[in-house]
Design goal:
With about 325 residues, this protein is an alpha/beta fold. The protein is built from 12 helices and 10 strands. Helix 6 links the parallel strand 8 and strand 9. It binds calcium ion.
Length: about 325
Amino acid sequence: MTTVGLVIASIFTMTQFVYPADLDSVVTETRTPSSVATQPGTKRALIICGLPGDAEHHKTFAETIGKLRDGLSKNLGFDLSNIVVMFGDEPKDGDEEFLKAATRATREELENTTKRICEASGPEDTLWVLVLGHSHYDANHSWLNLPGPDLNEFEFAKLFSSLKAREQVFFLTIPTSGFYIKPLSAKERIVIAATEEAWETNETEFPHELARVLTNPPITKDFDVDEDGAITLFDLYVTLARNIAQSFLDGEFLATEHPLFDDNGDGRGTDIQIDYLTVEQGGRVKRLKTAKSPPKPNAEGIFAKSITLPFPFKESPPQETPKPADEASPNTNSDL
Ligand SMILES: [Ca+2]
């Protein structure tokens, strides 16, 4: 990220953490924003991976699920016992124990498990739902590929219709996931889709980038994309969208996934990342102009900015101090 020397005052009410004055001078330390410690309720996560495909994809998805679980547990305060994993494939010898013990992600088991989670979740609780795997679009619906009967976006949304948790976050990381926004959308429910609607049917990079950021977050000053002094769900989403856009640029590929975001319940996904991506990344970087005008009531992203995430505070690595020329190239022939 390019360094912008502007500190944009937050217009949102939230507990903020303060950067140390000498940000670049200290090696990594950890610290938890105080607002997270006061969050009541249980934090649950449900990771659903449909049919992964061939052996290579089984391995890739298994590794990504492992990282997601690690990141949720180590960096976001989810107890491992409250992270439920459902996997579409039969376990294989090389799988980790948690995956071997995972419930099979069939339609029937999804109905049972989500019913159980919805019943257990109270109004003070948190539920994050992460969906991975493959899908197919039949010109009417996006279908999550499962062992046995598949599930479309409306059927998926219905699984969570009775959910009362205060913090509800959905990451639909599958192809054609833009279709899931409309049926899932609700006021103060965050729905993130890896792709637009229509024909973004290619395998997605989103779940793997999510796993990378959750396990190895950027340094805090880069992670805080809106520079409000807190790492929130807004920052996480924009970071993911930006990293994915940049990865297509780096590979000189045409971007085949364009993430969308909804948290205002209007049923329409928005590319709220657009003001934080460069023109080359598909954005328009107009942060200063945007930040000067207060957002409209019910604007997309306001609720996400109120959800502070307990990522450890991470400093810049210490800079290598260049050695003076005479030290860098000692005169080994000083006796001559
Ligand atoms: Ca922020």
